[in-house]
Amino acid sequence: MTETSYLLEVSNISLAFGGVKALTDVSFKVRQGEVFSIIGPNGAGKTSMLNSISGRYQPNQGSIKFKGNEVMGMRPNERCVLGIGRTFQNLALFSHMTVLDNIMVGRHHLLKNNFITGPLYWFSPARKEELAHRRAVEDIIDFLEIAHIRKSVAGTLSYGLRKRVELARAVALRPDLILLDEPMAGMNLEEKEDMARYIIDLNEEWGMTVVMIEHDMGVVMDISNRVMVLDFGKKIAEGLPEEVMANDHVKKAYLGEDTDDDAESEAQAQSEEVA
User: What predicted TM-score, i.e. pTM, was given to this entire model?
Assistant: First the structure.
């Protein structure tokens, strides 16, 4: 795969639940090394798209290729093995487990130990393997600055810290592509600034390609290479952040602003009523 290759190729994806269309003929491509943001109003189909990429939903039609391989029909764990990790809009931590144990769960698919070698823990490579995974987890803990809560029970933490722990667990998968579903939702300004910094470092220093859903337009403009806009399950714009924000359809659908044409039509209608 070359530097300019597309890591993810989504083609003509449509998804419906009964008579409700969540996505309609959506296509886009994500280059290796990009931060690609998906924005849109509530109910636009953003999370449905991430669920389709990760395998949680199976679209009715279309194609999803990762590293050039078709992944439609693959289960979520199979896509995880290929290198796709994600976080969730609603936290999906094991609340009764410690932070360390939650992150270790993210390393599970990388373990080569099994029920045969397990009983021979002290006499097989299993112990060495576990130590290597624990070192990798400690690196993630240091990176995300959560060493002070590593032994805390996840369910006792503040919302902002739990979001950071969930990111740590996704990073522990060692993914090539990480899907972030509203990583900054419910955070204060300082927490958002920290999370934005972590995402940038994951992209630039850890080499992870990022596909992110986010409502904070300041963050989207600051850290995204490209942006796609969904509205009622359809793609209405895609491009550089500044281009997308200047798009009249985006202003109307997402920002709630009238376009020049709309304003002109409304003014003309009002003048006709007066006449």
Answer: 0.84
* Separation of alpha carbons 184 and 224, rounded Å: 14
H helix intervals, 83-216? 99-105, 126-143, 159-172, 189-204
Q: Locate all alpha helices (DSSP H) within the chain, ordered by sequence.
A: 46-54, 76-82, 99-105, 126-143, 159-172, 189-204, 217-223, 241-245, 248-253, 260-274
Distance CA 27, CA 12 (A): 5
Going by C-alpha positions, the residue among 82, 83, 129, 79 that lies closest to residue 104 is: 129
- The Cα 146–Cα 99 span in angstroms is 9
CA proximity to 214, closest of 203, 230, 201, 202 = 230
126 touches 120 (CB < 8 A): yes
d(CA 139, CA 161): 17
Give residues with Cβ within 8 angstroms of 239, minimum separation 6. Answer: 226, 227, 247
**Which residues are 70's β-sheet partners?**
65
Q: Give 171-221 pLDDT, tens digit per residue.
A: 998 999 999 999 998 899 999 999 999 999 999 999 999 999 999 999 999
Which class is domain 6-274?
A: alpha beta
Sequence length of the chain is 275
* Relative orientation angle of helices 159-172 and 189-204, to the nearest 10 degrees: 10
Residue spans of the domains in the chain: they are 6-274
Q: What is the pLDDT of residue 90?
A: 76
Residue-wise pLDDT for 78-99, tens only, equals 999 999 999 987 777 889 999 9
Q: Which long-range contacts (CB under 8 A, 24 or more apart) does 238-245 make?
A: 238/28, 241/37, 244/39, 245/217, 245/221
